[in-house]
Amino acid sequence: MTSPTPVAAVSFAAVTKDYVTDWRGQRWRALDQVSFAVPVGALCAVVGPNGSGKSTVLKLGSGLTRASSGQCLVNGRTPAVAQADGQIGYLAEDYMVPAFFTGRDLLMRLAGVAGLNLPRASETAARLLATVGLQESGNRRVGDCSKGMRQRLGLAQALIGEPQLLLLDEPAAGLDPRAVENLTGIIRAQRDSGRTVVLTSHFLPQVEELCDHFVLLGRGRVLFTGSAAEVRQRGGLSQLYLEAVAI
Amino acid sequence: MSARLQRCWHLTQFLLAQALHQRVGWLLATVALAVLAGAGALRGFNLGTEEPRFFTQLALLSLLLSGAFVAAFVGPALFCEGLATRTIPTLLMHGARRSEVVIGLLIALWTLLGWLVLLHAGTLAGVLIAYGHAPELAPALRAVASGFGPLLIVGAGSILAAMLLGRAVLSTAATLALACAGQLAPVIAFAQVRSSGVAQMGWTALEWLVPNFAVFETASPWAAATYAVSYASLYGCAAAFFFARREL
Questions:
Q1: Which helix (H) or strand (E) holds B79?
Q2: Closest approach of chain A CAs to the CA of B35, in angstroms?
Q3: Across chain A, which distance is largest between two alpha carbons, in Å?
Q4: Maximum distance among all alpha carbons in chain B?
Q5: Whose CA is closest to B134, among B124, B143, B149, B142?
Q6: Which residue of chain A has the CA closest to B13?
Q7: Can you give the pLDDT at residue B1?
Q8: pLDDT tier for residue A247 given thresholds of 50, 70 and 90
């Protein structure tokens, strides 16, 4: 008997997420009945204003936090199971790579935590440094690297274990246009190698050019979800964003 | 070595490296210098045959004080900074389980505290030999080694406080309060006997929750070690329980 092929890399079905905000048990609703699906192999952008729930979507997808109600699945399995199997690579928003490690040392240590022995961890670190274009700077202390290099290092750590799904929370935040271009090329290459990539961003023109699937969030609700063709039909992502968010 | 043990080993290494970069080296050096300076000052008094005992008590006091501060500041900082910089979520995404992260934090902190004990033992040994008290070395070192028990408990308490309270300042204050309460445990026992009704139940609960550090002065080494490991395990399990339910 063969298991059914999952139709979506990430699927949310009526997912609601409430955060407890103080000791009296007061709650704040970050996501409200959110439903969407990201096809396998897609490069999907989750966009929306600050506080719309983008990071919460990625945290739920990564298994770092649990939904209050509804169902979230990654390749047909719960995120916690997919995470334990190393199917998910995650770059957190504001991930501050420890400054005292060198890039190679950091990747080797994280590969060790992921269960690789020393020779394999060393080989993985060298390969990932080359993937993100940092083979020359691998022995530099992270504290001496530029923001763009650190962000590429953050992306490299997400690729340890060759995950099928990459969740990138604002990977281009704070980068200059050249660094954004650099990072965009790496992300595109990951999609071309067959991985599903879900990212959040505020750079609408760049993500419209880069991505082939979009989820637009506003106040914790899905305002639009669809392919690049559907976005073009509606006048482009910026137009769609301004119309939807103004409502 | 099983995969889980290997992961715990790598996690501990990672977290210990982070702890060492919180200027802990400077703190250890300052503490060693303080013990040396204190011994030099005591030398100015005519303490006669009691001199080795004074040196030993000075080293023990320095160990307990500096150990409580290391535990109170480094433990919560490791956890709270790990969350703020997203290091801990990143470790979890690489297959580390939450209980393993707690174990890694505990071992990293206990390793630091172990180094502090070794540093005090080494400094005390140097002082005793230099001042002609070499025959008193063995009991003095045993007394300093007994200081590791309370530190083991306070270290685990600091990680529990960080998991429970989530903020570095509150966790540091709670850890220092635990270190003080452990020294004042006889007072809690006295209040428990003298009170009645609900107050007595409260004091009884506190008596169970707070360790009694007087045990380390009176009990045999094995009993004291069992007591320290029991309390540290209890606090460690509670920390893992709270971390498993925490939003990241």
A1: helix B51-84
A2: 31
A3: 55
A4: 61
A5: B124
A6: A109
A7: 58
A8: low
